[in-house]
Amino acid sequence: MRIKYIIVPVAALFLFGNVSVQNTNEAALQTKITNIIRKMTLEEKVEMLHGNALFSSAGVPRLSILELTCDDGPLGVREEIKRFDWTSANWTTESATFLPNGSAITKYFKNSKNLG
């Protein structure tokens, strides 16, 4: 019976002991983010929200914020395109995945007789 009184507090400490460290790290990160945003000009904030090329938005070099490059869509990763138009960049160092969208997968399973 005594072992239960020892195991429960030890388990609780093990599971929840790092919560305060997590909160401290999160608070420090939030403070850092807030300070960086305060240093940004209105123009820099707008540039980060507005695309500066296809699938990318501007960074802020003076604050060491890199340009953000995104990918599109739920269908996989497309081949690399040129920065300012939709033509292929013709890179040979990459490959692309094209996955069927959700409606195509649903249609397949709905019509499939071999569902196991």
How would you write the strand order of the largest sheet? 1-2-3
Give the proportion of residues in helices: 40-55%
Question: Overall mean pLDDT score?
Answer: 75
Number-wise, the strands total 3
Percent of residues in β-strands? 5-15%
General description of the model:
This protein has 116 residues and is mostly helical. The protein has helices at 2-16, 19-39, 42-49, 102-111, and strands at residues 51-53, 56-57, 68-69. The chain has three domains: 1-39; 41-70, no CATH class; 74-116, no CATH class. The chain has a three-stranded antiparallel β-sheet.
What is the strand and helix layout of this fold?
Layout: H1 2-16, H2 19-39, H3 42-49, E1 51-53, E2 56-57, E3 68-69, H4 102-111
Compact summary:
47% of the residues lie in helices and 6% in strands. The chain has helices at residues 2-16, 19-39, 42-49, 102-111, and strands spanning 51-53, 56-57, 68-69.
Keywords:
116 residues; mainly alpha; 3 domains; 3-stranded antiparallel sheet; 6% strand
